[in-house]
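Tutorial handout. Part one gives the primary structure; part two gives the three-dimensional structure as tokens.
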Amino acid sequence: MLTLHTFLVYSMIQTDICIVGAGPVGLFAVFEAGLLKMRCHLVDALPQVGGQLSEIYPKKPIYDIPGYPEILAGDLITNLMKQIEPFKPTFTLGERVDSFVRNDDGTIIVTTNEGTTISSKVLVIAAGLGCFEPRKPEVKDLEKFEGKGISYMILDPEKYRGKRVVLAGGGDSALDWAIHLSEICGELSLVHRSETFRGAPDSAAKVFELAKKGKLNLILNSNVTAVSGNGHLESVTITNNQQENTQLFVDNFIPLFGLTPKLGPIAEWGLNIDKNSIVVNVEDYSTNIPAVYAIGDINTYPGKLKLILCGFHEAALMAQSAFRYVYPDQKLSFKYTTVNGVNAF
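Part two.
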């Protein structure tokens, strides 16, 4: 997915803006910065761009991107890469940013766990949820079947074509995948501990309708309490609120209980932190440290919504503010791309 502008560097990288996180918001920040003639270098701990959209659900449809009634997560990343290609961003992938210092002259030096150093005038943290790991149900022998019928994310839904699959969860991810997999799996069951869902009401309504049509088995007020098999998962035990057990023979069990976010090294950078999120100024999404910004799911402020489109908005305002650090002697002149086109910037 990367372009020829990607490279491996053994000396200090020089750029205008260093972006920590190459997810959708970090990528769009390259576009907004590029319009103002600011160069960007992105660092991500994952081996590819796209963040969670590439790592966890590349084939999952997304419905709330303006101009796209529906777009696959992986396709959105591909489009963002095409959009920023004119601005020639560079990348350091598969490395985690461990520390940064802001020198007296205003330059910011970022260092990764592999010793790569990046010198920039602005640091933008677009690290999504930071370091994350799936929330696992407390079921005996669960780890025994990880990668052998049990997984915590869906990378390729075609893997489950014609298979007997049990999903567990009550949030948006469980609902969205239940809807999508209902046309793929040979037999699909969705297990949820309650009668109501935490996800979008429209998605919940679709799931109930699919259950009525026999497209999936909806098992409410229940939990998966046991797993068994001989080398590979063969069955799960489902226990309802009356403590009655039912055994289902399955090929795959996928608990979708979300992710546990952890800030990792970012927590030690001297930023104002509130509940694992970075507190920012709503005028430009700057942090308490000059020339350091936080955009996307990693930040928090009154009225914050963890949506990709909100992160895009934050990236635009961040770039306008960052201009004064990159070009302190120039006056920012706002232009419309519809008038000037991208190549004019």
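Part three, for discussion. The CA atoms of residues 193 and 221 lie 4 Å apart. The two ends are 25 Å apart (CA to CA).
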